[in-house]
Design goal:
Blueprint (H helix, E strand, L loop, with lengths): L6 H26 L9 H13 L2 H6 L2 E8 L12 E8 L8 E9 L1 E2 L5 E2 L2 H13 L9 E8 L4 H14 L12 E2 L5 E6 L6 E9 L1
Parallel strand pairs: 3-6, 6-9
Antiparallel strand pairs: 1-2, 2-3, 4-5, 7-8, 8-9
């Protein structure tokens, strides 16, 4: 899919989509997360969240489908390779283009080990989450993607500090424009800008307390 030259139009559409999805998540999350415990896996949490999202009329009226663990396949019909990855949440639009979607990657944060010690998992969030957008594994031709952090101990401030410190430390590898990255409203969200070629990408981050 070639959208170079159309980035502004698709960016507006994707931003609108992320706004709708974030609003729905804000509504469903208290019920969705009510019985979670610190040992729940990322996939379990994401599946529960997607089931709740799909039932909301705002999603059903605005989008074609919400998919879980979407396989990313090479476009070559003769290739024998397996999936290039699995996208945690894909929001598909009412258009005839299968690869146009809002891509969202999910990661757990602030996980405690068996000794009770807290690991921020900021490295995994940045290197195994954000980096997949920067290296064009996810949303390769689109100007916007999403990241969701499941904050397993509910300490949003600690998770923010750890992730943002890791982003600053890895800014060069992330091609991150720190001057254009900023906090958003609500307070558990922020954006980062990445000078990816040929289409730069904006990542919207949303942290959810568990």
């Amino acid at each position: 899919m070639a959208i170079i030259g159309e980035s502004e139009r698709w960016s507006a559409a994707l931003l609108d989509a992320f706004g709708v999805v974030a609003a729905v998540i804000e509504t469903v999350w208290p019920v969705c997360s009510a019985d979670f415990h610190p040992r729940r896996t990322e996939n379990y949490i994401t599946r529960r969240l997607i089931r709740r999202i799909r039932r909301d009329d705002r999603i059903r009226d605005s989008f074609l489908q919400v998919e879980s663990q979407r396989e990313l396949l090479d476009d070559d019909p003769d290739t024998d390779t397996g999936p290039e990855g699995y996208l945690d949440i894909s929001i598909l639009f009412w258009v005839g283009r299968n690869n146009l979607c809002l891509a969202i990657e999910c990661k757990r944060l602030n996980v405690r080990n068996k000794k009770g010690e807290r690991d921020s998992l900021a490295h995994e969030y940045v290197r195994k989450g954000m980096m997949r957008f920067v290296n064009r594994q996810y949303a390769p031709d689109l100007p916007l993607g999403g990241m969701i952090g499941y904050v397993m101990d509910g300490d949003i401030a600690f998770a923010f500090a750890a992730v943002k410190a890791k982003i600053r430390a890895d800014a060069a590898a992330l091609s991150c424009d720190l001057a254009r990255s900023r906090d958003l409203v609500p307070p558990q969200s922020f954006l980062t800008m990445h000078n990816r070629s040929p289409v730069e990408i904006e990542l919207r981050h949303l942290f959810l307390p568990v």
